[in-house]
C-alpha cells in the first residue's frame, strides 16, 4: 500500500512539473504578444514613464491609439492588400511547388537529391542582393508601383523552401499507395491527387502558413517596388505612416502588430488538429 502511495505521489508530482513547465514556456513565448496588446491601450503618460510596470495599466486604458490606426492611417487598405497578395502567392506556391516536390521525391535519378538542395539554396540568397536585378524585371513587365509586382516576385522566395519542405513529406508517403491506386485504374495524376495529397496535408498546411506569413512580413521587396500608399502592404504601410521622423506612434504600431497576428494565429489553430493528426494517419496495410 505504501509503494502504491509513493508511486501515486511521484506520478502527481511528475504531472504537476510537466504542466508547470508547459505553462511557463507558453507564458514566455506569449509575453511579447501580451506586452503588445497591453501597450496598444496605454496612455502616453503611462507608456513613457520608465518607473511604470510595462505589463499592467498604471493609468486607465484608452482606445484612442487603436482608433487612430483606423481613422488616420490606411491600415484597412494595407491589410486588404496583404490578404489578397498572400492568398495569390500561396496559390501560386502550391500550384508550382507541390508538383515539383512530387517529381523530385519520386524521381529515381542520382541528381534528384542534389537538385533539391540547389533549389533550397536559392532561398538562402539575401533579398538585398536580388532586388536590384528583380526591379528591372518589374519595370520590364510594367508593374512598378503596383501591388501585383509583389505577386510576381514573392513566389521566388516561397517556392524554393516550400519545395524543400514538401519533399520531406512526400518521401514519407510509401510508393505502394500510388501503385495500388494506379492498379485500381487511376492515372498517375489522379493517384497523386486522390491518394498522395490527402496524406501530405500536414506539409501543405505548413507551406500555406509559411508562405503567407513570409509574404506578410517581407519588407525589402515591398519597400523597393511599391511606393503609392494605396498599393502598400502592412509590412511597409504601417511603419511609413506611424514612424514620422523621430516621432513614433508606438501604441498604434503595437495595435497593428496585434491585429495582423491574430488572424494568422486563428487560422493556424483551426488547422492544428489536422496538422497533428496528419503525422499519425496514413499507412500501407500488409
TrEMBL record:
* Topology of the protein relative to the lipid bilayer: Multi-pass membrane protein
Q: Quote the CDD domains the UniProt record gives.
A: TM_PBP2
Coiled coil regions in record: none
Highest rank taxon of the organism: Bacteria
Q: What Gene3D superfamilies does the annotation carry?
A: MetI-like
InterPro entries associated with the record: BP-dep_ABC_trans_perm (IPR050901), MetI-like (IPR000515), MetI-like_sf (IPR035906)
Q: Which PROSITE patterns match?
A: ABC_TM1
* Record-linked Pfam families: BPD_transp_1
Q: What is one GO biological process annotated to this record? A: transmembrane transport
Q: Which UniProt keywords apply?
A: Cell membrane, Membrane, Transmembrane, Transmembrane helix, Transport
Its Gene Ontology cellular component terms are:
plasma membrane
Q: Where in the cell is it found?
A: Cell membrane
ABC transmembrane type-1 domain residues are: 79-271
What are the TM regions of this chain, as residue ranges?
Answer: 12-35, 83-104, 111-132, 152-170, 191-214, 248-272
PANTHER family membership: INNER MEMBRANE ABC TRANSPORTER PERMEASE PROTEIN YCJP, MALTOSE TRANSPORT SYSTEM PERMEASE-RELATED
Family to which this protein belongs? Belongs to the binding-protein-dependent transport system permease family.
Query: What's the protein here called?
Result: Carbohydrate ABC transporter permease
What species is this protein from? Answer: Actinoplanes aureus
Amino acid at each position: 500500500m505504501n509503494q502504491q502511495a509513493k508511486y501515486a505521489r511521484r506520478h502527481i508530482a511528475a504531472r504537476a512539473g510537466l504542466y508547470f513547465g508547459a505553462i511557463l514556456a507558453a507564458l514566455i513565448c506569449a509575453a511579447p504578444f501580451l506586452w503588445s496588446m497591453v501597450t496598444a491601450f496605454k496612455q502616453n503618460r503611462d507608456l513613457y514613464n520608465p518607473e511604470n510596470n510595462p505589463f499592467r495599466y498604471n493609468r486607465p486604458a484608452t482606445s484612442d491609439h487603436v482608433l487612430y490606426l483606423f481613422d488616420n492611417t490606411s491600415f484597412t487598405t494595407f491589410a486588404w492588400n496583404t490578404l489578397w497578395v498572400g492568398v495569390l502567392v500561396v496559390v501560386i506556391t502550391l500550384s508550382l511547388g507541390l508538383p515539383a516536390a512530387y517529381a523530385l521525391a519520386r524521381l529515381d535519378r542520382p541528381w534528384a537529391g542534389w537538385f533539391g538542395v540547389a533549389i533550397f539554396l536559392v532561398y538562402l540568397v539575401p533579398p538585398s542582393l536580388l532586388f536590384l536585378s528583380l526591379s528591372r524585371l518589374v519595370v520590364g513587365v510594367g508593374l512598378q508601383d503596383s501591388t501585383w509586382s509583389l505577386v510576381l516576385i514573392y513566389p521566388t522566395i516561397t517556392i524554393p523552401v516550400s519545395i524543400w519542405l514538401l519533399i520531406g513529406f512526400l518521401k514519407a508517403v510509401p510508393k505502394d499507395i500510388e501503385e495500388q491506386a494506379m492498379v485500381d485504374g487511376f492515372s498517375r495524376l489522379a493517384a497523386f491527387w486522390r491518394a498522395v495529397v490527402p496524406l501530405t496535408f500536414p506539409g501543405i498546411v505548413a507551406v500555406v502558413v509559411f508562405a503567407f506569413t513570409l509574404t506578410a512580413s517581407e519588407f525589402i521587396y515591398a519597400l523597393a517596388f511599391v511606393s503609392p500608399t494605396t498599393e502598400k502592404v502592412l509590412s511597409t504601410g504601417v511603419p511609413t505612416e506611424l514612424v514620422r521622423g523621430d516621432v513614433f506612434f508606438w501604441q498604434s504600431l503595437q495595435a497593428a502588430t496585434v491585429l495582423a497576428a491574430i488572424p494568422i494565429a486563428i487560422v493556424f489553430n483551426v488547422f492544428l488538429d489536422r496538422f497533428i493528426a496528419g503525422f499519425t494517419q496514413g499507412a500501407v496495410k500488409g
